[in-house]
Amino acid sequence: MTTIHTPGGPHKHPDEEARYQEAEPGLIAETSEGAQEMGPRSSTKTEELSKEFGAALRLPEGIELDPGDINIETSEDQTMIINMGPQHPSTHGVLRIMMELEGETVLRTKPVIGYLHTGMEKTAEGLTYLQGSTNVTRMDYLSPLHNELVFSLATEALLGLELPERATWIRMLMVELNRMSSHLMWMATNGMDLGSTSMMIYGFRDREMILSFFEKVTGLRMNHNYIRPGGVAADLPDGWEDDVLAIVENVPQRLKEYDQVLTGQPIFRARVDGVGVITQEQAIALSATGPVLRSTGVPWDLRKDIPYLAYDQVDFDVVVGSVGDTFDRYAVRFNEILESNRIVSQIIEKMPKGDYKVASKKVTPPPRKRIDESMEALIHHFKIYTEGYKVPEGEVYVAIESPRGELGCYLVSDGTARPYRMHIRGPSFVNLQSLPPMLHGGFIADAVAVISSVDPVMGEVDR
Amino acid sequence: MSDLDSTFVERDSYFQTVAGLKEDGYNLLSDLCAVDYLDHVDRALSEGVIRERFEVVVSLTSMSMKKRLRLRVPVPESDPEVDSLFPLYPGVEAMEREAYDLLGIRFKGHPDPTRILLPQDWEGHPLRKDYSVGRIPVQFKEVKRTR
Fold this sequence. Notes:
heterodimer; A: 463 residues; mainly alpha; Cytochrome-c3 Hydrogenase, chain B; three-stranded antiparallel β-sheet; 20 helices; 46% helix; globular; B: 147 residues; alpha/beta; Beta Polymerase, domain 2; four-stranded mixed β-sheet; elongated
């Protein structure tokens, strides 16, 4: 039963057209499985209403539901389903959230996603491993280096490569700086969402410092394609220590100011304190990771718990919250910038000397100088860039801690130069599921603060 | 970071196995995805494992033991359906919807088995290997075709 389905459109290859005509009707019928939107109460089953807060959230087993909490009797003319997004400025891109309101209180919530879906997992199957990092870097566009890192680590795990120490430490330096820039960007947009426009400008200003350094090292401000299977694209430029030191010295001072601008600000506190609470059990049951999970008090950080790179050789603390409200998620990110800052300053001291990419002839193209001298080197160079290198058969799942949570890459190789299947476990994608319990019972006006506190990056949600 | 143990589980005992693992401390479901092995139906697998076209791959994490575990469930082409893990891990909902959307694996007992990334009127499941990527023929004008 091998059938070909092409997306609609007039431009079909004649062979495919014919096969498409023969396609089994069952498969096509299967595809109309119903609406993605949140349905009205009348079309939602009573059992479902009674066991769920939102159209998307179901309570985990073992958690008792307060019967008074959900009124399944609520008649439809008392509630209203409204749409927020996908063009709402506070939804951080093209997130669409459907909310059922009773007065100003949110009852059910359902995130509707897919507006930015570009089929990157399918694209990856057509790219070589060398080209793969240019693809994944575009997923979470606020932390591109983490995406490259997880893909490279997965490829290296399949290849069985042992990286030179310097490559590992350069990677660590770059991803930690990236974590800082990502969190600073989050503070900026979060500030804007909550009415602190000055924070927005400050956040972007500080992120700019880090992006300028990235530009100096990688040549690009985002979508760097700097971390590649086998190491990094280039060594750090001369005098990188000074640039990084400037960042390391600057950021804590600036954060002290932001602490006053935000943490000590009564209006800001009134909007975040006790808003959008999620419990530990809910967060774990909903597979939430990153600051969303840590804000509930679970000290789960892959850098600490299942270390990768050289995180076991640097000293840092895992920041946790206590209540799991919007303020805790803010505080966790705020302090994570400082912890990353600590890691970066240790990296400056400990940066080892040596190669920045692996010396394996298989994955590393010959240096430019050799190409002028040797025909074989030229052929080798050409082969790597056209055919790519073959990766042994196997499958691997690698996960790292991105600024948003567990970023995983499941890679299947069939022994050719292109991945047979690449799956990215996007933390924003999974974390979005914690929105319905956070929003339930709160005011519609808090929705903006709560959505912002989950920090979804739609490029990664939709991939 | 390092690779985790990968175990094959039969479809019938899949739910029970995961339920048992949850009891044993694997409290976080990290990832669920599916793979279409259409081009490698005869791939080498350890003995006793049924080769099927699809595989559902589940990564479980134990926070207390700091360990990971990966389960691979062969799913036949004729009846691509497995039990939904939703009653155990509600967070699997979006991942199962994604696997349904992109690979057409159905999850029995899933509360909202609709498409998640693609529009609801989309035809087919793009990550299946027999789903061709759409292409637009480019005509180079004023160049005669030599072959």
